[in-house]
Design brief:
This is Pyrroline-5-carboxylate reductase. The chain is an alpha/beta fold. The protein has twelve helices and ten strands. The strands form two sheets. Strands 3-2-1-4-5-6-7-8 form an eight-stranded mixed β-sheet, sandwiched between helices. A two-stranded antiparallel sheet has the order 9-10.
């Protein structure tokens, strides 16, 4: 079986490299990867010269040879890609795409076949030989949503593949969001909210680490990179504490913060400020999702 990948940007390259690093291809499987700039493949070819790997700049070659095609490009490019390869697709073709905000109804006028939306996260990158051999090599959460034409075995193929290096969360519900006045109302927005947490999350976490590290450095004689390392190890240790011992967030807070102590002073300040910031962040992102959805609709559903 030949598996096609169109696009070798941040997500496409992460997925391809994970597949090859973890040796996920069977003996009779071949990976065909397409990108308009072939020079992006130099390190890939150097690292995996003998793998079942074929690279090309011709998307039509991928569409002609592969029934399973992963398209990992920017959302505006997706329409162009589908229109380009559409003459070579058939009822067996299974399109798997990573474009957040692009739903099945947007694509249906262009391709009314088997579709799986996959939202990966940079956190799932396989980074070392230790993570390859580790039983706990899965990192981050990959979101997966299938349309009704994707059969069970095809669903399992997608989910099993991403389950090798991440935790797969299947989204089965339709999506929409409603807001009235100044209140956030629970809605069927599982995909958007899960994307904010898993896919957007690494950027938000990295920004908080950077800001906290810079503030600590400005208030001391410690270099920022040393502080960042301490913060990172503390985050990992805290996550492992929750995972290994099943401690709740309140359990950890109560174990660390003593009454009228330094930690409690900080917890009290964050309790006052952070809820408001989090609420504003979620509202902003969900509103932006709505704007993006409308913009995509104008592009994909225009007559």
């Amino acid at each position: 079986m030949k598996i096609g990948v169109i696009g070798y940007g941040n997500m496409g390259s992460m997925i391809v490299n994970n597949i090859l690093k973890l040796n996920l291809l069977l003996d009779d499987e071949e990976l065909i990867v397409s990108n308009r700039h072939l020079n992006k493949f130099e390190s890939l070819i150097e690292e995996y010269p003998e793998e079942n790997l074929n690279i090309t700049s011709d998307n039509k070659e991928v569409a002609t040879q592969c029934e399973k095609i992963l398209i990992s490009v920017e959302t505006p490019q997706f329409k162009e890609i589908i229109e380009e390869i559409k003459p070579f697709l058939n009822e067996k073709t299974h399109i798997i795409y990573t474009c957040a905000g692009l739903n099945f109804n947007h694509i249906k006028p262009l391709f009314d076949g088997k579709l799986s939306l996959v939202i990966p996260t940079l956190a799932s990158t396989v980074t070392s030989n230790n993570s390859i051999s580790s039983l706990a090599r899965r990192k981050g959460v990959t979101l997966v949503k299938h349309n009704s034409k994707v059969e069970l075995q095809e669903r399992l193929f997608v989910e099993d593949l991403f389950n090798e290096f991440s935790y797969v969360k299947r989204i089965d519900n339709p999506i929409y969001f409603k807001e009235e006045e100044d209140n956030l109302h629970p809605a069927d927005n599982e995909l958007e909210m899960s994307t904010i947490i898993s896919s957007c999350g690494p950027a938000f976490i990295a920004m908080m680490i950077d800001t906290f590290a810079q503030t600590c450095s400005d208030s001391s004689n410690m270099p920022k990179d040393e502080i960042e390392d301490m913060i990172l190890k503390t985050i990992i240790g805290t996550a492992m504490l929750k995972d290994d011992q099943g401690l709740s967030n309140n359990d950890i807070i109560n174990k660390v913060a003593t009454k009228k102590g330094i930690t409690q002073e900080g917890v009290d300040l964050l309790d006052k400020k952070f809820h408001k910031i989090s609420k504003s962040l979620i509202r902003t992102l969900l509103n932006r999702y709505d704007e993006v959805n409308k913009d995509i609709g104008k592009t994909y559903l225009k007559k």
